[in-house]
Write a structure and sequence with these properties.
76% helix, Sodium/glucose cotransporter, transmembrane helix, sodium transport, transmembrane
Length: 499
């Protein structure tokens, strides 16, 4: 890789660290500022931050690679994700923004569960915090693996050095600037991803000769590659689209709804976020198809389909532009890592340290603990990621399903159903997580196969969690007092005419 690419990447790292220093000065004087940005994100920053932290390297590596291999039939996951993200904005975003503020100013997802139901046993807070810290440590390590492999494949750098560079830069700006730094860097990273996923497929299409020539080249390989239903069954389509159910329970995404400046900003946030998502998903799908046509017409050797974005960036552009495009992959990886680091840190600080160890800790102490826990989680994730052959990447889909099943129905019903109880919330969280684990690991089918080989584990997990919440809630007494009053206050504000 030529020096121009290194210059572009160097500038990218400088910008990320500069944002971290800016946020350090502006928003880290108290714990609310450090872990939630003081609830003053504008709709543009909040929406692109949610999108960038969501998509990770899957957007630029996994999805184009799947399209390269399987054609349009791989688009079902993207369709499911788009529908799920839109439903998340419509159902969860305005309600969660209001409820977390009115429910004694909850700052984290476990804090919200605790205060929403006034759980004096603290079981909701403890169990949800443990789930977040464990799954996000594994999730973060998978991002570090991707960063290490990117430097190894694109620059010939040793995997360990690539991992440390990725971890070092992310940890630096997250540790310094907290939530505001993460959100602002996510905004920049989202813009980079947007430009990259428009530029690469358009240039590749142009080089092949346009849309018609691209389609002709793909048909000459296999006409089925342009058929959305090629090889699809009802179960496979449901499994793919069920990825969209995961959105309702992803802490690193829905925390952006808690941080947006006002509930009045949510419609604008939704419009920006969904427009960004639509364009980038189409760009990712187009990169895979255009890359397949380009490789077929030019003889480009593609040993790993997931590197098609990297290969096109290298052969089609000036080295300075190639560096920018590789920065887009790093942006996708780093935006997710930083969000997961901060959510894990916030949970350790606000849900463990401040609740069980130092109830009267001053704000500066809590911010310092937040920084220490960012470092601790990053180091733990780095240790897990050190072996490039580890299987931690396999846990990404399981973590998505685990969060979606354990937290998704709980979040939706806690915001929309007044009759829900604390015991119902506990039952739903436990049943959802247990179902995903059983579906993933129990060898109950012939030849020791897992149920996850039949249908994606989030489907049974989400359904059973939802049913457990409803059944157990109806078995108990309806909430009264502050719990019911807060719920009513949220509904009243949602129905109030907008100024």
């Amino acid at each position: 890789m030529e020096i121009g690419a290194f210059i572009s990447l160097g500038l990218y790292f400088v910008v990320m660290l500069g944002i971290g220093l800016y946020a350090y000065r502006e928003s880290t004087s108290d714990v609310s500022g450090y872990i939630l940005g003081g609830r003053r994100l504008g709709p543009a920053v909040a929406s692109l931050s949610a999108g960038a932290s969501d998509m990770s390297g899957w957007m630029l590596l996994g999805l184009p690679g799947a399209m390269y291999l399987s054609g349009l039939s791989s688009a079902w996951i993207a369709i499911g994700l788009f529908i799920g993200a839109l439903a998340n904005y419509l159902i969860v975003a305005p309600r969660l923004r209001l409820h977390t503020q009115l429910a004694r100013d909850a700052l984290t997802i476990p804090d919200y569960f605790d205060k929403r139901f006034l759980d004096r046993t603290r079981l909701l807070r403890i169990i949800s915090s443990v789930v977040i810290v464990i799954f996000f440590t594994l999730y973060t390590s998978s991002g570090l693996v991707a960063g290490g492999k990117l430097f190894e494949s694109a620059f010939g750098l040793d995997y360990g050095w690539g991992l440390m560079i990725t971890a070092g830069v992310v940890m630096a700006y997250t540790l310094l600037g907290g939530f505001m730094a993460v959100s602002l860097t996510d905004f920049v990273q989202g813009c980079i991803m947007f430009v990259a996923l428009v530029l690469v497929p358009i240039v590749a299409l142009t080089q092949v000769g346009g849309v018609a020539e691209t389609a002709s080249a793909i048909r000459s390989i296999d006409p089925g590659l342009l058929n959305l239903f090629e090889g699809a069954t009802v179960i496979s389509v449901v499994s793919a689209m069920a990825w969209g159910l995961g959105y309702f329970g992803q802490p690193h995404i829905i925390v952006r709804f808690m941080a947006v400046r006002s509930v009045r900003d949510v419609p604008m946030m939704r419009n920006i976020g969904m427009s960004w998502m639509l364009v980038t998903l189409i760009g990712a799908l187009g990169t895979g198809l255009a890359g397949l046509a380009y490789a077929s017409r030019t003889g480009l050797e593609v040993s790993d389909p997931e590197t098609i974005f990297i290969l096109l960036s290298d052969v089609l552009f000036n080295p300075l532009v190639t560096g920018f495009l590789l920065a887009a992959i790093l942006a996708a990886i780093m935006s997710t890592i930083s969000s997961q680091l901060l959510v894990s840190s916030s949970s350790l600080t606000e849900d463990f340290y401040a609740v069980f160890l130092r109830k009267d800790a001053p704000q500066k102490e809590l911010v310092m603990v937040g920084r220490i826990t960012v470092l601790a989680v990053a180091v733990a994730a780095g240790v897990l990621a050190w072996n490039p052959q580890n299987s931690v990447l396999d846990l990404v889909s399981q973590a998505w399903a685990g969060f979606g099943a354990a937290f998704g129905p709980l979040v939706i019903l806690s915001l929309t159903w007044k009759r829900m109880t604390r015991n119902g919330a506990l039952a739903g969280m436990i049943v959802g997580a247990a179902t995903v684990l059983f579906w993933t690991y129990a060898p109950v089918l012939a030849d020791g196969a897992k149920l996850g080989s039949v249908i994606y584990e989030i489907v049974p997990g989400f359904i059973l969690s939802f049913l457990a919440i409803v059944v157990v809630s109806l078995m108990g007494k309806a909430p009264t007092g502050e719990v019911a009053e807060t719920f009513d206050a949220v509904q009243a504000q949602l129905k109030a005419p907008k100024a």
